[in-house]
Amino acid sequence: MTTAQSFLTKGLPLLFRDHPHATVGTWLLATGGAVVGMIHVGGVTRLTQSGLSMTDWSPLGSLPPIGKDEWEAEFARYKQFPEWQQRKSMTMEEFQYIYYWEYGHRMLGRCVGVLFCGPWLYFSLRGKIPAGYQGRMALLATMGGTQGLVGWWMVKSGLGDDRRGDRNQIRVKPVRLATHLSMAVATYGALLWTGFSVLSLPHNKTLQSLDLASKIPQALRHSFKLRTAALAMTGLTAVTIVSGALVAGSDAGRAYNTFPMMDGHWIPPEIWERVPWHRNLVENTATVQWNHRILGTTTALTAASIVLVGLSPSRAALVTPQVRKGLYALGLATGTQFSLGVATLLHYVPLSLAAAHQLGSIAVFTSGVYLVHALRYARPALLRSTGRVLPPPPSALKQAAH
């Protein structure tokens, strides 16, 4: 076997040991896992209607109320804000329950910040951060720090006096909730990609030296198409997650609890009833849910197509073992997530299913990011950097001859 041909057998595994930056890559992935935990707790905080229980915010936080007097003072402060007008039967025990969920979510966010910034400082002082990666670390720190501000901006939208006349349950504004979740997912994705890249640094010289374009052109063409499709699918997953936040923000999951039709309609007649039209995209329950259904179904079908093509008997051997693992993970995650979405809708959004559905979206996103990274050997920039050109397929050469 030539080196290029054996490449398809071994691939580009993530290296968690035996290179100087393995610890840095592992730390980045661990921080990403902590962000997933924060997203999950944030979802449960929303599902338990706990998000407006804390009515002030400070960057460093504080201890929770201790003792009867402090709890009574905190409860009295909560009663000054609009949500209390809809929840006047709440007991102190019920208030403590929702308060602890919101408090836990905020403190977990601060713990993630410490988990990132502490090791970053340590690794920087020890010279362990790979060359060219300090800018990425600064960007990740900025994204994480900004997330706290965006979270408070979101919460404030449910605390203002302009909400006192609301007849529906008072919630934070859906667009702000979607912004908050989008930033969390973007931060997670950036941590994931950076961690994968650091754990793959020893492979860079190998990729530069291999002439994959001339040695395995058929495999490289297939991988290039697969990578393009995986990029599109991962982007579509991110958009679907944002649309899911709009569903959660407007409580749209508790309407049209039938599938595949929406109360007997493929397209609900009230889908464009608000004026101006763009308000329907974020405020109309029918429109918000219909959009999420279409995006979720499209994401699932796209992922299924990628998996079926990538793992077909004639093509599975044309990709590396890491790509095949990514395809298996994508198929499993997407199938499970679609099933969870339908079950959550049909069962009227129970907490357990809804929380699992949100985690499922992160699993699909993670699988997509991993798959795209595993296919990095087929990216156009690598071909350009090595001065190689991918030859046309044999069919094109035959057509040119005729």
From TrEMBL:
Pathway: Porphyrin-containing compound metabolism; heme A biosynthesis; heme A from heme O: step 1/1
Catalyzed reactions per annotation: Fe(II)-heme o + 2 A + H2O = Fe(II)-heme a + 2 AH2
Domain of life: Eukaryota
Cofactor: heme b
Cellular-component GO terms for this entry: mitochondrial inner membrane
Chief localization: membrane
TM region(s), chain numbering: 107-125, 137-155, 175-199, 229-249, 326-349, 355-375
Cellular compartments annotated: Membrane
Record keywords, A-Z: Heme biosynthesis, Iron, Membrane, Metal-binding, Oxidoreductase, Transmembrane, Transmembrane helix
Record membrane topology: Multi-pass membrane protein
One MF annotation (Gene Ontology) recorded for this entry: oxidoreductase activity, acting on NAD(P)H, heme protein as acceptor
Single GO biological process annotation from the record: heme A biosynthetic process
InterPro entries per the UniProt record, alphabetical: COX15/CtaA_fam, HemeA_Synthase_type2
PANTHER family named in the record: CYTOCHROME C OXIDASE ASSEMBLY PROTEIN COX15 (PTHR23289), CYTOCHROME C OXIDASE ASSEMBLY PROTEIN COX15 HOMOLOG (PTHR23289:SF2)
Protein name according to UniProt: Cytochrome c oxidase assembly protein subunit 15
Species: Fistulifera solaris (Oleaginous diatom)
